[in-house]
Amino acid sequence: MRLNKFSLLVFGLLLSVGNSLYAEVVLPKVIGHNMVLQRRKAVSIWGTAAKGEKVTVTFAGQQKQAVANDSGKWEVKLKPMEASADAREMVIQGKNSIKLENILVGEVWLCSGQSNMEYAMRKNSKFFDKVKGSHPVEDDLETAKNSNIRIFISKRKFMSPDPEHKGWEPATGAPLRDFSAAGYYFAKELYQKLNIPIGMIEAAVPGSRIEPWIQTEKLAVSPKMNDGKIMDQLSAGKGEDGKFYDTMVEPLIPFTLKGFLWYQGESGCFLNEDIRYAYKFKTLIESWRHDWRDAKLPFYFVQIAPYQYSVGDDGRGRTVESLPKFWEAQALALRLPNTGMATITDLVDSIVDLHPPYKWEVGRRLSLIALNKTYGFREMESSGPMYKSMKVEGDKIEITFTHTGSGLMSRDGKPLTCFTIAGVEGKFIPAKAVINGNKVIVSAEGLKHPYTVRFAWHETAQSNFINKEGLPAVPFRSDNPWLKLF
Fold first, then answer.
1. CA 264, CA 302: separation in Å to the nearest integer?
2. Which segment of 129-143, 158-172, 203-217 scores lowest on mean pLDDT?
3. Are residues 235 and 347 both part of a single domain?
4. Is residue 332 within 8 Å of residue 482, measured between CB atoms?
5. In terms of domains, do 368 and 407 share one?
6. Which of 220, 377, 387, 486 is the most buried (most CB within 10 A)?
């Protein structure tokens, strides 16, 4: 029998009503067995159901209810809880009942970026084979047995709801092989200090630019710089705006987090971006905080490593100073509240390797920032020396730093390297640099009237200048022009 348009319309309406009457409660992929819930915050649990359906969530002595709205969406908020390593069940009840098992309460962080964040534990393990006896002394892929660290990988093609509610796994054995090494070592350090469950969510894509991680409409802006000039639209970079945000980040919202870790930028440096990247980075940080409904969420990131970006330039005009300018653009994010930066200029064996292997130390340095800034370990130094100010004294320049820790020093006991100075004409020459208490005095033979100073201002710079905590000094130029624009 052939159906006319009216019959088809009625059939469609009946089908719609039928689906509504029998629609089941569905949970997003990130809510499942083995997950870690954020302590000391109201915890969001959400999903979909039939319009008007009442959904009850029961966990740890709490029972919360919500009614699905016209779009079928519902959300409840569990009251803040203290950390617990007791494996507990959560029951979500609507027309159907879902029981999630082995749930802990602790600290939850989202780590994101490109290939150096995605750099998996299995790759890290191969590196151990080549450097037996290096720090740390054992391969965690073989020895990790702490089931209180849980991991979840957000994958573009596998973020649709899972009827088996799998995704979270204890950070042991096979599941750990594919997880971010930097993210795991961050979690391992936190656990050693806090001794509470740690949940790590990874959303990283090798080679990705920053634009795909930002919601498309957020890039449709032309920032006004402090000098009054209007920048071209941030979306003009043709970086597949929003592509990974839509498929890997948005499905995680509003899973309750403690904060974000970010390790990305190599693709931006290849494009010879500097101040434009700074504005995009600011947009990403502020928009993610907005989406998670918390303007104060910590955001800690890695300043990318030395690499020969100028070699084989593809017409974008990269020079040996392109990377230092990019470092500077990354560091501008420190002007936003609750941010921190890990510098890794010393973690490179080869400047032709875009993926330095010391991810356990990258994770540790990120953990130092979190422990100091987020968890109250104020006695821990979280950064290498950072430029604060300079003062010309005759034919010398006196440089003052923050993050001097328990003192400044040379890593190898030799004179400090990678300092250059210039007069008003701007011709930079190598400088002699001497530590004087918590300051550094620089000078150069024949330069009577120094005017400005730079440190590690070269793409291959790997200086021996550190604080006594072993953290490398942050590259800088005292004549930073972006401070007036950003």
1. 7
2. 129-143
3. yes
4. yes
5. no
6. 387
pLDDT at 285: 98
Shared-domain flag, residues 406 and 315: no
Whether residue 266 has pLDDT greater than 50: yes
The CATH number of the domain holding residue 351 is 3.40.50.1110
pTM above threshold 0.90 = yes
Mention every residue, 6+ apart, whose C-beta is less than 8 A from residue 30: 152, 154, 167, 168, 201, 251, 252, 255
Domain that holds residue 60: 7-103
CA–CA gap between residue 418 and residue 127 (Å, rounded): 29
Residues 369 and 248 in one domain: yes
Both structure tokens of 367: 């953990």
Per DSSP, helices labelled H in 95-170 are 115-118, 121-130, 140-143
Q: Which of 390, 414, 396, 401 is nearest to 463 (CA)?
A: 414
Under the banding of pLDDT at 50, 70 and 90, the label for residue 106 is very high
Same domain for 121 and 223, yes or no, is yes
Predicted local confidence at residue 135, as pLDDT: 52
Task: Give the C-alpha distances (Å, rounded to integers) separating 252 from 56, 137, 164, 370.
Answer: 21, 35, 18, 22
Percent of the chain with pLDDT over 90: 84
Question: 93 near 47, Cβ under 8 Å?
Answer: no
What one-character-per-residue DSSP string does 364-410 give?
HHHHHHHHHHTS--TTS--SS-EEEEEEEETTEEEEEEE--TT-EEE
With 50 as the cut, is the pLDDT of residue 1 above it? no
